[in-house]
TrEMBL record:
Keywords: Membrane, Transmembrane, Transmembrane helix. It comes from the Bacteria. It holds the Pfam family AzlD. The keyword Membrane applies. The chain crosses the membrane at residues 33-51, 58-77, 83-100. InterPro entries: Brnchd-chn_aa_trnsp_AzlD. This is AzlD domain-containing protein.
Length: 101
């Protein structure tokens, strides 16, 4: 019973917007605005991971490898426009810098 209820809880937020918007024309301004949502969410997650500790305090030192890795990711994302390439290069960069620093 819990699995079935979990299915509906996970399925409803994905299906209802499709059902609602499949019969309506989405305004162009909304589509233009939604292009920025994945970028802003990804940025928020990365910044939180680098500068916020597990106790939700600002961390300004000790994360040099993560900061350099973040800068490398920004450059790779700008040049390649590929989220996958950015993540892979960023992970490898942080891994190497963590071993060196």
């Amino acid at each position: 019973m819990i699995i079935i209820l979990g299915f509906f809880v996970a399925f409803a937020p994905r299906y209802l917007p499709l059902l609602f918007f499949s019969k309506r024309q989405i305004p162009d301004w909304f589509n233009d605005w939604m292009k920025y949502v994945p970028i802003s969410l990804f940025t928020a997650l990365v910044v939180k991971g680098i500068f916020i500790s597990s106790k939700y305090t600002l961390v300004t030192n000790g994360n040099l490898a993560l900061i350099i890795g973040g800068l490398v990711v920004i450059l790779i994302a700008y040049w390649t426009r590929s989220m996958a390439m950015s993540v892979i290069v960023g992970l490898v960069t942080v891994m190497i810098l963590t071993m060196i620093i």
